[in-house]
Amino acid sequence: VHKSKLDFFCKLGYGKQDICKVLENLGPEALEDDVLKELIRMGSKPQAVESQAQPPLLKLVPRGSCSTAPGSKWLREDESDSSDCLRPIVIDGSNVAMSHGNKEVFSCWGIQLAVDWFRERGHTYIKVFVPLWRKEVPRQDSPIADQHILEELEQQSVLVYTPSRKVKGKRVVCYDDRYIVKVAYEADGVIVSNDHYRDLQNENPEWKWFIEQRLLMYSFVSDRFMPPDDPLGRHGPTLSNFLSKRPVPPEPQWQPCPYGKKCTYGNKCKFYHPERPQQAQLSVADELRDNTKLLNLVKERKYKHSP
């Protein structure tokens, strides 16, 4: 158990010394979530993040702007995504095909649409998993549309068939979901599916966090494959950051003062005032100190020039 946890967090980029220290404090039976929280609390950071290019110099941000969380590392915005910066994609072929076929037909065209969407974004590692029996002549109770697409994707080394065989006339099918999660986990990639894999989350605690954080759901609008712009919710990363190994920081958003020109807080107001182009960028404490020095200087001059 200790070794599996050590390997898991080493894959995430944390140092062995920090991991061992946390496991000694929490015990070998500690859950991955608790170990991760303790590593974050200690200030330990994944080496993969620290080895990235340094972010640009910090700039003063006017009060009223939203800044990124302290301690987060980002790349410069001029460093555009390349195939090396994009996460591997592992597609649940059965889930995507049945979703495009309205849960009535196994639509291989839906798989092609999903693959094309990721190719257009520049992803080079794309794997689709489909049970081997889908290669057979379709039965009336399980229709397949555009079956030739499976053969084309297999020739392109994109589609992988999960094993199945017949024993005494009965088909024995391997659990393809386990292949999907395992490959995505080992490749540190993204799972494309509308399935939550709850059984696998309960079966393997190491996969629980991964499935929660790396599952990309989607919708089909006619023949358009559409993942959400906020895969982990409105407060989570954007779709581009979710699919990238090196996320780009969001632009700072200005929060206008709700009182507008009627605001009586002056320079102390923490919100943005568009009518004040030279709004102070100092903290309130620094502003007060500067104002006090200015007042003292004015008084001193008046005293010197007084009769």
TrEMBL record:
Gene Ontology MF annotations: hydrolase activity; mRNA binding; RNA endonuclease activity; zinc ion binding
Protein's UniProt name: ZC12D ribonuclease
Keywords (A to Z) from UniProt: Endonuclease, Hydrolase, Magnesium, Metal-binding, Nuclease, Zinc, Zinc-finger
Chain coiled-coil ranges: none
Segments forming C3H1-type zinc fingers: 245-276
Any Pfam family hit: RNase_Zc3h12a
Domain C3H1-type: 245-276
